[in-house]
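Could you show me just one protein sequence together with its fold in token form as a worked example?
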Amino acid sequence: MTTEDRDTAAVASADGPGSRSSHVQGKKHLPVWQETLLLLVIAVVLAVAIKALFLQAFYIPSESMEPGLVKNDRILVQKVSYWLGGTPQRGDVVVFEDPGDWLGPEESSGATHGLTGLMARIGLYPSGGHLVKRVIGVAGDTITCCDPKGRISVNGHALDETAYAKLDGAKCYGPMTDTCNWSAGPVPAGHIFVMGDNRSHSADSTVRMCDPDATDCVDGDEYVSTDLVVGKVFVLLWPRDRFHWVHRPDAFADVPDAS
């Protein structure tokens, strides 16, 4: 065989019917509609996995968390902090499921029909039946309102809440009971005491405390089970011009543990 014959044979071997190159050229691509459907299925599966394990999107349904979070703001909640025995801490802004009687029928339902209902169930659209509040007290804590400066105290430590809470003309930081003289706790094990940052407009734990003369009040309804907590708010995602990370304020750093 001449040099020319060998070169011709080599080329034939590389590009012939049995070569890798011919297999690549002969490979068929999925139709566009099938590729689109496959990508959509993958996106939905990822959305469900992310919602179940890591992150979930919600919106702010009312003015109760102003000034930091405004009605219709979009927030992201992360769940990792409360894994493996982790629990909500004082100062955390948390999203939790309605304990059963905190929301009205319209607020509880959310999107249930059509495309928006499907998107809500897989975490691509904000769902109803949840609340967002700030944790003021954890298991064992006693919360008292209020000192001569109108401040709430936790385990005897007065909180400076001027950096995040809104009074809107109220005389103290716990006005929703129509008095600035009340106490709650000790908070039961496995529960939290929560308040909205807009202290004059938040149907929170303070609203559900039983007055001594009340006859239709359920004792303990003011506490939220930690089993209902979805996760901790860590970012205000939308609108874009108000994007910011949500941190635990320094006001709770020096609160002593319950004795």
Q: What stands out?
A: Helices lie at 3-15, 20-26, 32-53, 105-109, 114-121. The chain has one domain: 22-248. The mean pLDDT is 79.
